[in-house]
């Protein structure tokens, strides 16, 4: 079944779709950059897997950069590392929105890692995800559609089969 899904996904790529990276890593830097994510990146790199990881300087901007959007769209897989503060970053949520949009558009395969968070907290936006969305609802009260889209993409990624590192 998994190989059938992979074959079907790869056949959905257009002949003109350009792949620059095998893997795009989406993560909340302050939660996982110097530990889990850096180790994952190193392991993928050592196996010869071309992986995009953002530069710390990229997050200083107010909106997601065209370079990052291009990297997402030119990646075959996205590994989304969902940590306790992931939803408090509009940067991460915009990345995730683009990633989820690539599933039908490019056939991207999304692999979630629930890094010390319960998948049901992500899916139902409870715990720290509820706290983050309470703040987002206030901050974006003039653009509620944006917040609803972020809620939907989080539910979508939480409904995917992935890896769960239980809460500490």
Automatic annotation (TrEMBL):
GO terms for biological process: signal transduction. The keyword NAD applies. Signal peptide: none annotated. It comes from the Eukaryota. Keywords: NAD. Coiled coil: none annotated. PANTHER family: TMV RESISTANCE PROTEIN N-LIKE. This is TIR domain-containing protein.
